[in-house]
Amino acid sequence: MSLPIHWDNTQLFIYCFVAFINMKVRPEESLKIENIVASAKVTDYLDLPMLASQIKDAEYNKKRFPGVVIRMQDPKIAALVFGSGKVVLTGAKSVESLSTGLEILGNLLRGLKIDIPKDLTYKIQNIVTSADLGAGINLNKIAVGFNLDRIEYEPEQFPGLVYRLEVPKVVVLLFGSGKLIITGGKQPEDARAAVLKIVSDLKNLGLLSN
To answer: Which CATH class is domain 38-124?
Structure first.
């Protein structure tokens, strides 16, 4: 459809904005990282009571949790630090922020005269990602049509359907609203591959329109 030639810039902007918000976002483009959990080894031993007393706002209650919790604000990550020198980073929204968070932690520990290697590395343990199919889905029909060996669906206990994929090796939670939660990924690409797989399976069963 052609646009009226007499439209001014304001009318054109409104037209384009409405057209933009009405565009249907493809499920694989709706991906959003909700949390990344990674582990690292920074040294062979850490004095946790000393860390808790020297690092501002550090939390340490041995009876409740065996590690020191250090919360960073930028990036917004929590570091769970253990006496063995192992660290778990959680709350990250991007892979890049993990490196930044680990560097901040390393500098904090070095500031306490603790011997910490210059180049710290981490290993991603789990990436939790959300996605949206853009339409409601019938979980009862999906439970019948999908591979039963990889499906868990007990609506009386949990409102979502659990689908365990082999490739990529992740777990997908499907909800009737069309929302998805992908967990168990080791790299961001795993979530995209999982969503493409789910969409393909649903379309093949006639449970999701093109």
So the answer is: alpha beta
Phi, psi of 93 (to 5 degrees): -105, -5
Residues 141 and 200: their CA atoms lie apart, in Å, by: 15
Distance CA 78, CA 80 (A): 6
For residue 188, give both structure tokens.
């961001």
| Interval 177-206 mean pLDDT | 95
What one-letter code names the amino acid at 109? L
Give burial (CB, 10 Å; 0-12/13-18/19+) of 168: middle
Number of residues written out for the chain: 210
Grade residue 23 by pLDDT with cuts at 50, 70 and 90: very low
Name the pTM for this structure.
0.84
Cα(172)–Cα(129) distance, rounded to whole angstroms? Answer: 9
* CATH fold for the domain made of 133-204: TATA-Binding Protein (3.30.310)
Domain boundaries, the chain: 38-124, 133-204
Distance from C-alpha of 176 to C-alpha of 164, rounded to nearest angstrom: 17
Listed residue (153, 151, 156) closest to 201, CA to CA: 151
pLDDT of residue 200: 92
Residue 168 contacts residue 187 (beta carbons within 8 Å): no
Q: Are 36 and 93 in contact (CB under 8 A)?
A: yes
Q: How many beta carbons lie within 10 A of that of residue 51, not counting itself?
A: 20
